[in-house]
Amino acid sequence: MKLNKKMIMLCIWVLSLLMTGCSAENSEKDTHNKETKGNEPQTVKIDEVDWNIDENIVDEKRCVVLDYTNNSNCTIVDFELSFKAKNDITDKEKEKFYQDIQKSFEFSDDDMSELKEKEISMSTGSERVVNPGESVDKVRCYYYSGYYYLNDISHYNLMQPDIATIKYISDGNVYTEYYDFISKKYSTEDKTEKAVQWSNYDIGNEVDKPEAEMIKVDLDDEDLFKFDVCGMSKDQYDQYVDACKEKGFTDEKNQKDDRYSANNEQGYSITLEYDYDDYEIEVRVSKEE
Predict the structure, then answer these.
(1) Residue 138 region, left (φ>0) first, then alpha (ψ -120 to 50), else beta?
(2) Is the CB of residue 98 less than 8 Å from the CB of residue 27?
(3) E strands within 101-235?
(4) What is the pLDDT of residues 242-279, one digit of tens each?
(5) Closest Cα to residue 169, out of 38, 37, 40, 41?
(6) What's the predicted TM-score (pTM) here?
(7) CA 17 vs CA 13, 20, 25, 142, 193: distances in Å
(8) Which domains are present in the chain?
(9) Can you tell me whether residue 189 is helix, strand or coil?
């Protein structure tokens, strides 16, 4: 059957309408998907954290340390790793491990008996603010959950990674994500907290609110306000001390390179300390009796 010219033109017109409708519908779907995706918080995956454990010199001593680079698009505010003994560790390796521990830290036989009841483990971590592309180095590693430094790389070689904890900032909130190296699965804490916190009382008006990616409030009431300003250099600490002086805290009680304490005429006292390890300013504001 032959189609006349009018019939051909009609078919083309109908097809063009159908194609235009499909295109518009797909465009709306794409826009919706982009908007939905844009509203979801970003995440940080373990392969976006380039970490390494090795020997290095810290304070003129050889020790085992963590280095890592943040290759994600989020600011990491806490990165922790826990390790447990490899599945194929031998009794001979365990015995040498315990002998080294007892000799290094002068543990008694009773101490060692108690220690041997625990699973062999190690840990490390840093609460520094690490922006995308930045790195942290020479973070000390510990035996078990902390306290004793790990100084022997042969002991680390008996370990395998167990769990990674990653805290990061997304849409103004701090999220906590865990990665299980054994099951290779992620889990995220339901609870989040604001990255930048501040006092709910008038005492917060006595000091300037620093410009920082993260401020953690430790204690907040009418007469006492304690907070940590994270990710601050020593120069930024010095600048904040000057800002507190301009705010009226000039009756100095104590001033050192990394500590400042003073009163103001309104009856408030302030103490600032700088933490060189975590790059934090610890601030305490209180109403004087």
Answers:
(1) left
(2) no
(3) 121-126, 135-143, 159-170, 173-180, 185-188, 193-194, 214-220, 224-230
(4) 999 999 999 999 889 999 999 999 999 999 999 999 99
(5) 41
(6) 0.83
(7) 6, 5, 12, 69, 51
(8) 46-194 (2.60.40), 202-287 (3.30.310)
(9) coil
